[in-house]
Write a structure and sequence with these properties.
The structure is a single chain. This protein has about 350 residues and is an alpha+beta fold. The chain is about 35% helix and about 20% strand. The chain has a five-stranded mixed sheet with strand order 3-2-1-5-8, with helices on one face. Strand 6 and strand 7 form a beta hairpin. Helix 1 runs antiparallel to helix 2 and helix 4 crosses helix 6.
Amino acid sequence: MDSGFRLFPEQASTIGGRVDGLYFFLLLVAAFFTLLIFLSIVFLAMYYRRGATRNRQRANSDRAWMLEVTWIAVPLALVMFIFGWGANIYFDEHAVPPNSIELHVVGKQWMWKIQHPQGRSEINELHIPTGRPVQLQMISQDVIHSFYVPEFRVKKDVLPGRYASMWFEATKPGTYHLFCAEYCGTGHAIMRGRVVVMPPAEYAQWLSGGEQQPPVSAGEELFTRFRCNTCHFQGSQQPRGPSLANLYGQPVKLSTGQIVIADEDYLRESILNPPAKVVAGFQPIMPTFQNQLSEEQIFQLIQYIKSLSTMSQKTSGAASRGQADQSPQQPPAASSGATPPFGGKAKEER
């Protein structure tokens, strides 16, 4: 974190150079037309000044339409070029690489709370490695905040009741500013922190130093504590709630006939407001957990539900490989004793 004066923040992310390129081009265009208009005004004021002998009669020309077409076509082409350039950066900023590290961020008056998937958590600090994309899943616990790292050229509004996502990839080890860029109350000025970018080996060592519980494990405990496993399970009896295995990211048919995708926002809404989207074939009997769970706990439950999809896929893949590798002397294992995908426990959500 450079304490000296800088006209522009340091570039420390892969997107930084592209954002600056567009920004400086806009400055150049604005400066060019400002200077052109200023010099034109000065010239015309001097040329047609009082007392100067000039022809002030209105000129009649059959080619005046060419001037009109020019001052319409040139600005149109220029702004469409700028639009295409900006749209290209915008779409790349929202296309999260598949190998990114997913972190959870909660904004609240007046701090940033950050959760790593391995279990370490931070307040007003964010430790990340160089050369690895980092995705932030963010939500506000109270009012609108804005996650802003000037050196990375990224900023994203963080809203209550809705997940927002952004990603970046740091290129230089160092310590950088972290701000809230949206006025969020009397303590807005103190809602700041730092981003610590580390070489991958140092980052791995830093991660191993924490003793906190991973979100998936914490979510499983919440799942059992709130008795979600009494309705969401797989077994011989008809469950009272839909199965959660392989649910995340899949289309879900609702009782209204609508098809929705089971993403983070859907899972969160199903936990806090179950009657909003009832799955087809089930009754709206699930109780609400509004005001019973913090945003961190909701995130942990969602991470656990997401892990059920990953776990089921790994289990089915291992079973397929096992059947393919069986010799004729090894008959297939009996399916009657198969372990349910929830590890013998029943699950919750929608």
